[in-house]
Design brief:
Layout: H1 19-36, H2 39-46, H3 61-90, H4 100-125, H5 162-168, H6 179-202, H7 208-231, H8 238-295
């Protein structure tokens, strides 16, 4: 069963009353602060920098394993959701393995957030080198503050953190568990996201501003999609409509597959019939040639 926060159950005066405003204020505050005082980014990254060695945290196997968990956990969730859609289309008469709105919500969140906004827009346009690449931390590139365009083209860009964005997109999972577990799961997922962000800073892969701004932007995307899919009037009927649409798609694909199989069987039958008709004729002609040769 899927548990969601109903708008009427949210206590007035709490931060949940206007989460979009909260996410926007978080993003704007840290954007202005770290743009006005870029030395904060350098100071935080210097905590993990060792002269002559760079960022030795990247050599610790346990931290690399933790990073791999942060990379593969969201990927596993995406694969499971895709598998649920494939099962629904393969068996259209059965209900969805997961709530259709749940699938649409997280698919849209990962596609619009980390895929489009982070890797499709921000990283290609903002040429910000990573901490391990800047002159102040042993690299050969000039330091570029947050939200600055830079000017040098290179592939290894820092703004904003893609891995932090992906892990932050897991936090809304807390609102799909039973209420009694919701706070615990929210704290655990938030701590996991914070540890992932700190891990990226310790590796010299991202500045503090990269992970904080990524978190704020993903929060805005998550809240906006939550409103569109779960809160706006009429959204309660989306599960039924989406389930029906997926069933129609599955039945249509099954009908197309059956028509293709019938055409294939018909083509094979025609081919076999043609072969069976031509084989005796060839055998007769071959026999006549043999008889003529023997008479000669």
């Amino acid at each position: 069963m899927v548990y969601v926060v109903q708008p009427g159950q949210v206590p007035r005066g709490t931060v949940w009353e206007k989460p979009m405003l909260l996410s926007a204020l978080f993003t704007a505050t840290f954007s202005m602060l770290l743009s006005a005082f870029p030395q904060i980014d350098l100071a935080v990254s210097r905590l993990f920098y060792v002269e002559g060695r760079g960022f030795p945290a990247g050599e610790i196997e346990a931290l690399n394993t933790f990073r791999a968990v942060g990379q593969y956990f969201p990927l596993t969730l995406s694969i499971v959701l895709l598998f649920g859609l494939i099962l629904k289309i393969a068996y259209p008469s059965r209900p969805c393995l997961f709530s259709p709105r749940f699938t649409v919500y997280f698919a849209s969140l990962f596609l619009l957030g980390p895929a489009l906004l982070v890797n499709g827009i921000l990283k290609p346009l903002w040429d910000r080198p990573r901490p391990r690449n800047v002159l102040e931390l042993g690299g050969d590139q000039p330091f570029v503050p947050a939200w600055s365009m830079g000017g040098s083209f290179f592939e290894d860009r820092s703004f904003v953190s893609g891995e932090a964005a992906v892990v932050v997109c897991l936090i809304p999972l807390a609102f799909f568990v039973p209420v009694i577990w919701r706070r615990c799961v929210l704290v655990l997922l938030s701590a996991f996201a914070a540890a992932t962000a700190l891990n990226r800073i310790a590796f010299g892969a991202h500045f503090l501003s990269d992970v904080l701004i990524a978190a704020g932007l993903m929060g805005m995307v998550a809240v906006g999609l939550w409103y569109l899919i779960y809160v706006r009037p009429g959204s309660q009927s989306c599960d039924i409509k989406l389930d029906a649409d997926l069933s129609r798609l599955g039945f249509a694909l099954h009908a197309r597959r059956r028509r293709a199989l019938r055409r294939l069987r018909s083509g094979v039958a025609v081919g076999l019939s043609f072969v069976s008709r031509t084989q005796p004729a060839r055998g007769t002609r071959r026999g006549k040639r043999t008889l003529v040769a023997s008479k000669a």
